[in-house]
Amino acid sequence: MKNYFFAVFLSVITCFGYTQNEDSLIIRKIFTEALTNYTSYNKLSFLCKEIGGRIGGAPQSIEAVYWAKKTLAEYGADTVYLQDLKVRNWKRGEKETCIVKTSLAPEKNLSVCALGGSVGTGKKGISAKVVEVKNFDELKLLGKDKIEGKIVFFNRAADPSTYSTFPAYGGAANQRVHGAAYAARYGAVAAISRSLTLAYHDYPHTGIMYYNDSIKKIPAFAISTISADLLSEFLKNDTALTIFLKSGCFENEDTTSYNVIGELKGSEHPEEIIVVSAHIDAWDNGEGAHDDGAGVVQAMEVLRIFKSLGIKLKRTLRVVHFMDEEMAQRGGRKYASVVEEKNEKHIAAIESDCGGFTPQGFCFENGANIKGLIEKWKPLLIEYGLWLFIEGHSAVDIGIMKNLKFPLFGLMTDSQRYFDHQHAPTDVFEAVNKRELQLGAASMAALVYLLDKYAL
Questions:
Q1: Exposure of 283 by Cβ count < 10 A (0-12 exposed, 13-18 middle, 19+ buried)?
Q2: CA 26 to chain centre
Q3: Per-residue b/e over 59-83, b at no fewer than 16 CB within 10 Å?
Q4: What mean pLDDT, rounded, does the chain reach?
Q5: Which residues contact 359 (CB under 8 A, 6 or more apart)?
Q6: Helix axes 22-36, 371-381, angle to 10 degrees
Q7: What whole-number distance in Å separates Cα of residue 325 and Cα of residue 410?
Q8: Number of other residues whose CB lies within 10 A of the CB of residue 233
Q9: The whole model's pTM is what?
């Protein structure tokens, strides 16, 4: 009779897409552990609230390095060590100022922030007329006669029509990254770019920008979406208005920083490595919660889960926290160079850098040899909302290792709110949902388990 009821039970769970095998049981244990233990959420609180923004070169970034090293040791890593590298040492300086002066209204303060890597305006600031453009083609058409001596305002909004917000971000990013360099070609004295977000709020979003070394460097700012629309409206009615800009940015000589690496040694093939990773640096104008504190504690949590459950991986699990993703990706480059120099054998690398939102699956590259395995794994993962597996770009730091020809995976999350917070003052601990954060860690751990068992 007992056997009869057990057979009925098995048939019921099978019809709902479950299989009572070792893999499904272990993955269930992984998710149960993640969803009932909030250690990583509490660690994220400390990283955000006690350390905060931690751009490479800042004292907070070094504090974060030693905090991560200590945490990985507390979680039971067999070895924890630092990998030194040089990083840029850019400082924001005093709070930025932007004042519109127009005949149509009293002086109005607009919300701006300096872009990462920008030069400052000097103590006196800059006052000039403004020219609004949508793209570099419009800038070229206007030419030096209409641009010289003015501030160029790039006001191309991110495209709201795409389901994933990442193409929307990418489609508008060149104005932030290269806008100042292009404007300087035509004699502009400063550049302002619309923040790369679909959110309509008054928080400017910073981010990296680059100069052309053969052209004069001019100050570069981001402006909030609300302030951008307000400035555009003023310009429609008063083309002679002026803006006063002031920033105190400066850059010191490169300084020493570190990647943080922790390992659980494999029981059968310790020389074979599976990486789980995130970048530990974050912009200085927020707390770096979604970008990428969430990824940092998720990567740590993968190690903690396996250690807590006593699951012995055959291969070495390596947690890597990359430094300097936001500025120049020197942490990713240093790690890749050491891997190549030592001829280390990597089975796969996973990175979390899409925020602590609900996980949906993984994007992957260099995965031709495991496409069949991914198809077999889907029934095990779809129960946990992991349905999206897309071949393409994985993530910034691990993507540097693409030439080394092992599979690279990026955790994919629901992207709808990510760019509301990325690089903005709203990227704070309170913006992260505890359950969504833990689901992301469990998703990475489940993939590690499957890679360790099957990806030969």
A1: buried
A2: 29
A3: ebbbebbebbbebbeebebeebebb
A4: 94
A5: 384, 385, 386, 411, 412, 413, 436, 439, 440, 443
A6: 60
A7: 15
A8: 11
A9: 0.93
pLDDT at 456 (0 to 100): 65
pLDDT at 370 (0 to 100) = 83
Type of residue found at 388? L
DSSP characters for 131-162?
Answer: EEESSHHHHHHHHHHHHTTSEEEE-PPPPTTS
User: Would you give the DSSP letter of residue 346?
Assistant: E
How far is residue 371's CA from residue 409's CA, in Å, rounded to a whole number? Answer: 12
Amino acid code (one letter) for 203: Y
Amino acid identity, position 448: V
Residue showing tokens 């009821």 = 5
**Residue 432: helix, strand or coil by DSSP?**
coil
Domains of the chain: 17-86+254-454 (3.40.630.10), 95-251 (3.50.30.30)
Contacts of 234 (CB under 8 A, 6+ apart): 100, 102, 104, 105, 108, 241
Q: Any idea what DSSP says for residue 402?
A: G
Alpha helices in 195-240 (DSSP H): 225-237
Which band of pLDDT confidence, cut at 50, 70 and 90, is reported for residue 17? Answer: very low
- CB atoms near residue 270 (< 10 Å): 15
Query: Residues 40, 304: contact at Cβ < 8 Å?
Result: yes
First to last CA, the chain: 42
Stretch 93-112: mean pLDDT, rounded?
A: 94
The dihedral through the CA atoms of 31, 33, 36, 42 has a sign that is negative
Query: Helix %, strand %, coil % for the chain, to 5?
Result: 40, 25, 35
Confidence tier at 8 by pLDDT (50, 70, 90): very low
Identify the pLDDT of residue 146: 97
Q: How many residues does the chain have?
A: 456
- The tokens for 362 are 């993984």
How does pLDDT run across 256-302, given as a tens digit for each residue? 999 999 999 999 999 999 999 999 999 999 999 999 999 999 999 99
Pairing label, strands 345-351, 408-413? parallel
Nearest to 284 by CA among 39, 69, 420, 115: 115
pLDDT (tens digit, 9 = 90+) per residue, 339-352?
Answer: 999 999 999 999 99
Q: Give the single-character DSSP code of 387.
A: -
Note whether 325 and 84 are within 8 A (CB): no
